Amino acid sequence: MYIAVESYANSDIQNFSYFIIENNQDFFSDIKDILLDNVSSTSCKVDVDMKLFVSNYENSKRNFSLSQISKKKYSNKMNIKKFNCNHAIFSPKVIIEGKYFYFTGENKDGIKFESLSFDAEFILNLN
Q: Measured between alpha carbons, how far is 14 from 99 in angstroms, rounded to an integer?
């Protein structure tokens, strides 16, 4: 199963953008453990396999549950076979800072994308 989280570009783009990440329980469990054990404000970066989906509102609405993203900050209700994540993303990473983590990467044009910050509760709600 995959999840989609909204991402934001560091420059003006007219389309919506989302990171598509495999909902790998081991991966998210490891992040949760780091967050819960992280008593200082240290940070770390972890490579992650994810894709970038950039499209207009109508196409996004056909592929994701936008209301679920609005409420839960992610969507696991998507039609992954219907769309093609043909936007290459370079240096896809999860950044863990203190009690929060977020996803980041950039496209071929050098536009950087970043998600909202999430906490351990986000991971608990994925299941």
A: 32
